Amino acid sequence: MRPPRTAQLVAALISALSLLALTLCTVLFLRSYRSSIIESARTGSAQAVSQVVGTVGSYVDTLEGAVGIVKEHLGDEESARDAFLAAFLTARPEIAAITVYDEYGALLNCWAQDGRTPSEDIVRNLSFDLTTAKRLGQGYISTPHVESIFTGYYPWVVSVVRRIPDGGHRCWVSIDISFKELAGTISGVGIGRHGYCYLMDERGNMVYHPQQQLLYAGLKKEEAGRLACIGDGTYVEDTVIYSVKRVPGSPWRVVGVSYVDETVNESFWQMFRVAVATAALIFLMALAAGLVLSRFLSRPLQELESAMEQFEQDADRFAFRPVRGTREVQNLSDSFAHMVRRIQKLMTTVREEEIVLRKTELKALQAQINPHFLYNTLDSIAWMCERGKNADAVEMVHALAQLFRISISRGHELIPIEKELQHAEAYLRIQKFRYKNQFTYHFTVDESCLHCLCNKITLQPIIENSIVHGLDLMVDAGHIEITVKPDGEDILLIVEDDGIGMEPEQVSALLQNEPSDRTGIGVKNVNDRLRIYFGAEYGLSIRSAPYEGTTVTIRTPRVPEDREADYDKIH
């Protein structure tokens, strides 16, 4: 049953309007804020780069100031000069060393922290490059490097090389200033969560990069060469924002790198929360309208539909509660309640009739066994009397009496397996007389099964089939093995003979013959009784092959003796 079409249309219209409003709000928010977010990211990147430029500019000013001071005192008297420079190095611990070179690049003099003297064997002097100094004329500022002219002292420095104006043998002065503090400042400047700044020279050579190891390892690349060719400013390329600015008074440029997605996403989620709040408000309103519509139109019909589905799934235990709503809905609810009561009453009647039918069928099957077995046994006794074997006939009559005493079992269908085995053994004694000891038999019984219950006259028809159809046609004596053993929650009763066996068609016919057939009535009877009493998972299975014997396995549930009353009540 479906809700009325009007309710569907109204609900669909409300949902569509809500979705349209949500979409429009989201698009407007995204379009109005995206450009401002990118502009804000550009401004933030430019501000961060300006901050670094200011720091690097101060550093360069410090370098130039130190050079100016040193150059003023290099022409002083040697003792005064040395005393001043020693005091200057003590006051300025960021200055690692002051060195003086002649016009050929040979080291003339050196002043260093803690009075260190240059190594006698300098492999390569990284603090002074004569070729670069001559090419640039008045001097240069080197890239950060490790000072290498002292033994056991290797600070990370930047060298400021300047020409000494007074000429003479002392043509160049180099001041090595520690780069560690400046590197820490540059590394500490972040633009967003993953943005950063780095320092390059005017040719695009890397001066300092916070991820320098990745660059050396080839795991990261920068666009320094291309950025060196463009002017100062902020540029947006795909998802990256580049901010480039020259450091005044130096050949260095600071480059800031930030990511549009990272910056935009952060603001986008702020907008998204606004959109979600708006959408939630719209949906709450739509939900309220839907609830009102459902309460008066759709909901009662859906409840009635749900009740019908529950009744279809479990009609026996279904309890219908009337559905409230409009007058039409209440009329449908009353009609359905009346139908439920009538169907449940009919089901109860059918179930009771089915139980009576099962009992009748069971008794009919039981009645088939006794005449059939009695006919065979009396035929054997008559045969013995005809031949004057009265003593054997008397013993057979006693065995027959015991057989029927167990068969009657005070009207109970279930008897202990111990009694069923006695019944089978009495039958085997009778048949041994008839067949003149043409077979032997043996019982293998698990004692834990003796006091469990089974259908009476279960083994006898199977044993009879083994003797008549399996062993009677043999020239040599045959053997019947009866085994009783547990199998999980079940018990297996196995009758195995070494007779002539059967073809697959004969095996199938044993369990399919109708009661009017003469052959196999007993075997089919046993199988039918087990299935009627315990269910389709129980019964007989037959395994046989020509000239290899036959094995019949009877599967029955483990039923303790104290549960006999429960099964009698059910059946």
Explain what this protein looks like in three dimensions.
- The protein is α+β, with helices and mostly antiparallel strands and 571 residues long.
- It folds into 2 domains: 17-268, PAS domain (Beta-Lactamase, 2-Layer Sandwich); 351-570, Histidine kinase-like ATPase, C-terminal domain (Heat Shock Protein 90), CATH 3.30.565.
- The protein contains 14 helices and 19 strands.
- The strands form 4 sheets. Strands 1, 2, 3, 4, 5 and 6 form a 6-stranded antiparallel sheet that branches. A 5-stranded antiparallel sheet has the order 8-7-11-10-9.
- The radius of gyration is 54 Å and the shape is elongated.
- Residues 515-520 have low confidence and may be disordered.
Largest sheet: 6 strands, antiparallel
CATH-derived architecture of the largest domain: 2-Layer Sandwich
CATH topological fold name of the largest domain: Beta-Lactamase
Helicity range of the residues? 40-55%
Domain count: the total is: 2
**The CATH top-level class label of the largest domain:** Alpha Beta
Give the mean pLDDT: 79
The CATH homologous superfamily of the largest domain is named PAS domain
